[in-house]
Amino acid sequence: MSWSGGFEDFNTIQQSVPSKKQSNYGTGTGTYSRNTMSDIYQAPTNRVTAATGGQGVKVAISDLQPVMPNAVVVGVVLTKESPHSFPNKKNPGTDRHCISLTIRDSETDFINCTCWGSEEYVKHLAQTLCIGDTVEITNPQVASKPQDRSDERFRPSTPSGYQLNISERHSTIELYGGSDLSYFTQLSHIPTRASNDYYTLLDVINNGQNLHQEYINLLFGIRSVGKAKDITTKTGKKLKRCEVKILDETCKSFPLIFWDHVLSDLAQSWTPQEHVIFAADCRVTFDDYRKAMIATATSKTIFTINPDTPEAYNLYQYVQGLDFSEEDFGDTSANQAVIDLSAITSVYNVEGVKQLQTQMVSNPSSDTSDGICGIIFGYLSTFDIDSEISSVVLTRCKKCWYKVDSRAKTCSNVNCSAGSVDDLFNEAISADLSQSLDILVNITDCTGTLGNVRFSGAPLEKCIGLTIDEFLCLQDQQKTELKWKFLLEKCKIYFKIMPRMNEKSHTSIKVLSCQLADPNEMAIYAEI
User: Fold this and answer.
1) Percent over 70 (pLDDT), the chain
2) Over the Cα atoms of the chain, what is R_g?
């Protein structure tokens, strides 16, 4: 039965739905292989005119027309929304159900689709079809988009002038298993925008509120994926929230928020330091609570995992070389989060901090993915500020932010664009190096000792009252005298505990501030 074009065809009836299949999406093998489409696959030459099982004619998205009975469209699923329902005006007391997809059949052509049917049918489609699957749609209604493209306010913007309506009564949608399946699989790794058409995260931060509520493209790696949490709004709507920390060469941590079940589940499949993502039409806003810019995934956003582009490959190599156990990268302009110490009021003893570390490892959640801050009144039982320079000063290349061994004069990134490693130390281009104070200290009180606490960057400079350049001018005796101003002295120490994203069974602790304690204030908390 061909499509009649009548909207009443969307009245629901029971029909069979596709069988469940494992999604090919987001396998995350830990290796990144970049090849062009022409290197691996040839586009199927018969995909415009070939008959499919004798039931229809396969049509490319670019060749769709409003009246095409028994057309067959094959494409890879780029996006999928959660099922929706709303009152049926023609049958009061009943609801209409639908689910939206976006499919693609070439590097340049993709189209929005809406599947209509019974609640059971739509729910089964939602459980069966996954982003990255290739589907075959038979006998859809090809409808023109509104002239003002108002339908794309909450859907991906597509180059096609049409959209597909898939009726449970007259259409079918099923998983595709043709011989050219690998061609469609590879399409899922091609961004829907030009590979260089994106903002860096530092661009977003610097533009600030000028980009508020704008939809932009981003290319980023994954630093951490928070636990998805079910949330019920005041109106009774059920949502799933997930926060992902993303990064690129310009910013080491930036929040990306998900408020949808499908997208939150998608984010859970991303692996820190293994996946690189191109996000088309990601919304950025200024968050009044954080006083900073954030990104939000919406129903317009299309995510491309491990894009097959030079830019993505270079970012992957960069992210692979990062060491997240060292949170201070020495470039405060590239790190957005500024912690307000006055907002930290929780006081812990050493034993209490160790309990926090154990809880963070044994029961990770989005509540702790950003870290836990607190205060300790204790002693610096190790403060080796007078050690040899190579143990106190961390040197990084500003081009790639990899470590530079100042003794061997070697950058650990063999693909660094800064030039020869010896040139890095030439006075003429010394601006290509970033140096910061960076040591490990022990913190002790009557309940125990915290070892290997990182104390670095601006907090350490503020503590000793010297910049990195001023410190490097000190004589050894002066450094030792500086050490004994704080070693075994009573101190008020602000700290932050963070999970190590590349070692999920460990945490790291960083000093946010350290100053000699007021004896009266310390006495108040002596019993904690």
Assistant:
1) 77
2) 28
What residues pair up with 417 in beta bridges, in sequence order?
A: none
**Would you say 25 and 267 are in contact if contact means Cβ atoms under 8 Å apart?**
no
What gap in Å lies between CA 250 and CA 252, rounded to an integer? 7
What sections of 297-444 are H helices per DSSP?
Answer: 310-320, 350-362, 389-392
Helices (H), 29-107: 37-40
Report pLDDT for 217.
96
Q: Looking at residues 87-93, what average pLDDT do you find?
A: 80
**β-pair partners for 162:** 144
Query: How many angstroms separate the CA atoms of 248 and 514, rounded?
Result: 30
Quick one: which of 215, 301, 219 has its CA closest to 262? 301
Asked if residue 457 lies in contact with residue 514, where contact means CB atoms within 8 angstroms, the answer is no
* Residue for token pair 């003429």: 428
User: Could you give the CA distance from residue 148 to residue 237 in angstroms, rounded to a whole number?
Assistant: 30
Structure tokens at 527: 């019993």
pLDDT band at 41 (very low <50, low <70, confident <90, very high): very low
DSSP letters of 97-132? EEEEEEEESSSS-EEEEEEEE-HHHHHHHHHH--TT
pTM: 0.63
Instruction: Work out the mean pLDDT of the chain and round it to a whole number.
Output: 80
Nearest in space to 154 (alpha carbons), one of 66, 63, 259, 305: 259
CA 471 to chain centre: 38
Residue 230's pLDDT band (cuts 50, 70, 90): confident
| Mean pLDDT lowest among 383-392, 400-409, 441-450, 505-514 | 400-409
Nearest to 454 by CA among 443, 467, 470: 443
Asked if residue 350 lies in contact with residue 493, where contact means CB atoms within 8 angstroms, the answer is: no
CB 296 within 8 A of CB 257: yes
Q: What is the pLDDT of residue 18?
A: 39
